[in-house]
Each structure stands twice: as structure tokens, then as C-alpha cells.
Design a protein that fits this description.
The chain is mainly beta and 455 residues long. It contains two helices and 40 strands.
């Protein structure tokens, strides 16, 4: 009897602990604070510089680099929103700056390649025998680029001495990339080339169109688009196609990866989001105009600029539009996320002046009363707060009479407060709103008078 009773107690205790454990396991996890760009946006500042930007803003930590058609290279402190230095390089630059570990590289119309340090001092320059047609990239101790005659060059980053060159069968517009001790680049001869670090051919991947965008390498897979209206995924080791997707136009830009998704722009004004492993289209969205600018992934959003005044953004998971910004003039660069700023460049052709526009999440609190001031003693007045730019906000209401302030409703999720004034006077009703990162407040004056005065 005693044994049976003890067993019942043990079973009961086990069930209690199990139920308590289950509650903790299945308890809904509080949503995390959204990261990245948050709409709507408001102007937070700008940096003005002479000249017209060449294509892209390059980011290196908090530093921003760009070059202009009148021959200058600029370095800005993005966090402080100020220019650090400018360097006159050539009268006719053709490329945005490529930022390496210690050096910066640009070239001009005559295919002279310039190497600067990160203080803007010229270290060396070389005249290339043929027109440079690809982006420039630093790969370990070499700086590499392709030419109109199909040569991929590698020069020493220290002194500019030629290390080797590789001859392809067509012009090279694709910026080379380096992964797993191999160099990858696309070519107008419809091949994606794979070279050893010393410039020897390892293999080729043949498709039906010119490959002009920068390939993306992830583990044993390479992703790229071509002007045959297809986007491809190939196994690097076996050089066999995993999948390909038919698109509505040519692909010139480089893809970006976010989790299980891969995104790219197409020349038919569409941004595509594909399943990275399987290749099927998860979603696609039209953008205002054609674009050769890089996509910017910020938190759970992708931001897109194009040859239009309107910057747009989409939810990475669903593809739904999550906001935009009308700059009122054509965008001249890629968007860049530098927390807490989203920035891009504009250009004024009349002043021959560029500017980097810094945007920040708009945070605003407004307070509205259900009845107009003045009201009589004992008359219910409800005050409601409306917010922009907050995530799961808390509201604290307070009442001021002269210098005295009293909190009338402690911090809570309730965005309204009902007041039954007990005496006449001139008051200020206010609300403080805050979340994990933001805080703001709003106030409105309100008078309470005797009934006969209201008449």
C-alpha cells in the first residue's frame, strides 16, 4: 500500500515537472529588434564633393571611397560624415576605386593603372598595353584585371611589376574573384575560366552567352548570370551544372547571397530572388529603371538603386515592398548600409557637384486629444499617441501643471490615456515613447475651465 502511494507521488511529480518543462520549451520567443534599414527614411546629413561619381561607392569599415570623372579619388569618414582626404590622380579616370588590404586602385581612359595607399599617396603607376575592361581586384599579393584583348593580368601590389598574364578567347568584362586558391572570371567567349594562383588554366565552364558580371563563389559552387537570359549554378569540382533559371533579360550585375537565397538584377528592370540550393524563383519584383548598381542587403531587406530618382526596398523572405525614398533626382551610385545610415550619391550637373546623401530611420511621436481644449471639470478626454519608427513601443503618460510633473500612466503597451480633470487650470499632457533603441516624446497644452466660462 505504501509502495503504491509512493509510486503515485513519483508519477505526479514527474507529470508536474514535465508540464513545467513543456511550458518553457514551447513558450513563444519574443521577436528580436529588427536589424538593418528601417522605413520610412529622413535625411540625416550630406557630404558635398566636386565632380561626378564613377558608378560606385566602396565601403571599407566606416570609410567610404569614390572616384570622379574629373580625376579625383575621395575618402570619407562615413560615421562622422566628413571628408578625410582627396587625391588628384588623373584628368580622366574611368573606374571606381577598388579597395584592397592596404592599397587603392583606379585606372584612367588611357589604361594607366594607379596604386594609392589609404592616405591618398600615389605608390606607383603603370601603363597597360591594352584597354582595361573589367573591375580591378586585389587577390592576396597581386592586383588583377581583364582587358579588351582577353588578357587577365596580375601585377605585384608592392611595386606594380607584372607577375603573369593569361590569354582568354574574348574580352574580359567580369571582375575576377579568388577562392580556394583559384581565380574565377567570366569572358565574352561564353566561358567561365578557373585558373590557379600562378595563372595556369585549371578548367572552363561553357554557357551560351557572354559572362560579364562578377561570379559568386560559395563552397564548391559558383553562381553567375550571362547575356543569354539565364542564371547558372555549377559545381566547381565537377564543372557540371546544378541548375539554371531562365530570366527576362540579360544579366550584367553580380549576385548577392543572404541565407538560403541568392539575388541578382536583370536588364529587364527586375530583381530576382532564387532558392540558392534548388534554383527555383522565390519571388521577383520590378524596379523603377535599369540598374548596373550592386544590391545592398540590410537586415531582412534588400535595397535597390537604379537609373531613376527612386530607391526601393523589398522583404527578403516575401519580396513585398517595405519602403522607398524619392531623391527627386537620378541616383548615381549603389546604396550602402552603414548603421544607422543608408546612403547613396547624387549629382548636380549645373554645379558639377556630387553629394552623398545620408538617410536615417524616421522617428516621430504625435499626440491627439479626443476633445478640443478647453473642456470643463470632470469631462472625459482621451489622449492617444501615434508613432513612426518604433518596434514594440512602450508609452508613459504624464501631466504638467506649472513646474510640477506627475506620471499619470506608467510605462505600458497602452498608447492611450483617459483623463477626468478634477480642477480648472492650464495643463500640458505629454507622452514618452521608447523601445530598445529609440525614444521620443510629444506634448499638447490643454485648458480646463468652469462650465459658465465655456459658454
Amino acid at each position: 500500500m505504501c509502495l503504491a502511494s509512493n509510486m503515485k507521488k513519483i508519477i505526479l511529480l514527474f507529470l508536474v515537472f514535465f508540464l513545467l518543462g513543456s511550458c518553457s520549451v514551447f513558450r513563444t520567443k519574443a521577436p528580436s529588434y529588427p536589424s538593418g534599414v528601417f522605413f520610412p527614411l529622413v535625411k540625416a546629413g550630406e557630404i558635398v564633393y566636386p565632380g561626378r561619381i564613377i558608378d560606385h561607392i566602396e565601403r571599407d569599415g566606416d570609410k567610404l571611397y569614390l572616384s570622379t570623372q574629373n580625376g579625383n579619388v575621395y575618402c570619407f569618414d562615413g560615421a562622422e560624415r566628413q571628408m578625410l582626404w582627396e587625391a588628384k590622380v588623373s584628368e580622366d579616370l574611368m573606374s571606381p576605386p577598388s579597395v584592397g588590404t592596404e592599397n587603392i586602385y583606379v585606372y584612367d581612359r588611357s589604361s594607366t593603372l594607379y596604386c594609392l595607399n589609404k592616405k591618398g599617396n600615389l605608390l606607383w603607376k603603370i601603363d597597360v598595353e591594352e584597354g582595361i575592361t573589367s573591375g580591378i581586384v586585389e587577390l592576396n599579393t597581386a592586383v588583377c584585371f581583364g582587358t579588351e584583348k582577353g588578357n587577365l593580368y596580375a601585377f605585384d601590389t608592392v611595386n606594380g611589376k607584372e607577375l603573369w598574364r593569361f590569354q582568354a578567347e574574348g574580352a574580359i568584362h567580369s571582375t575576377p574573384v579568388f577562392a580556394d586558391n583559384k581565380i574565377f572570371f567570366g569572358c565574352d567567349d561564353h566561358n567561365l575560366y578557373i585558373l590557379s594562383w600562378e595563372g595556369h588554366l585549371i578548367g572552363k565552364i561553357k554557357v551560351k552567352g557572354k559572362i560579364r558580371g562578377t561570379p559568386l563563389i560559395e563552397k564548391n559552387l559558383v553562381y553567375f548570370g550571362s547575356d543569354d537570359h539565364h542564371f547558372y549554378c555549377f559545381s566547381i569540382q565537377k564543372r557540371k551544372k546544378r541548375w539554371k533559371v531562365k530570366t527576362g533579360g540579360k544579366i550584367f550585375t553580380s549576385p548577392v547571397v543572404s541565407g538560403k537565397r541568392i539575388l541578382f538584377l536583370c536588364w529587364n528592370n527586375v530583381v530576382y530572388c532564387l532558392h540558392k540550393k534548388k534554383g527555383h524563383i522565390l519571388w521577383w519584383q520590378m524596379i523603377p529603371s535599369r540598374s548596373l548598381y550592386r544590391l545592398e542587403v540590410s537586415g531582412d531587406r534588400v535595397v535597390v538603386s537604379s537609373l531613376s530618382p527612386v530607391l526601393v526596398s523589398f522583404d527578403l523572405e516575401t519580396g513585398e515592398s517595405v519602403g522607398g525614398f524619392d531623391a527627386k533626382q537620378e541616383l548615381k551610385s549603389n546604396p550602402v548600409w552603414l548603421d544607422p545610415y543608408l546612403l547613396f550619391s547624387l549629382y548636380d550637373d549645373q554645379k558639377d557637384s556630387g553629394r552623398i546623401l545620408f538617410l536615417k530611420k524616421r522617428v516621430r511621436v504625435s499626440l491627439k486629444a479626443s476633445k478640443q481644449s478647453p473642456q470643463k471639470v470632470g469631462e472625459e478626454v482621451k489622449f492617444t499617441a501615434s508613432v513612426i519608427g518604433f518596434f514594440m513601443p512602450k508609452y508613459e503618460f504624464y501631466l504638467k501643471e506649472g513646474e510640477e510633473e506627475v506620471v499619470v500612466q506608467e510605462s505600458s503597451e497602452n498608447n492611450s490615456w483617459a483623463w477626468f480633470p478634477e480642477k480648472t487650470g492650464d495643463y500640458i499632457v505629454g507622452v514618452r515613447v521608447f523601445d530598445e533603441e529609440e525614444n521620443a516624446s510629444a506634448e499638447i497644452p490643454f485648458s480646463v475651465q468652469e462650465s459658465q466660462k465655456l459658454k
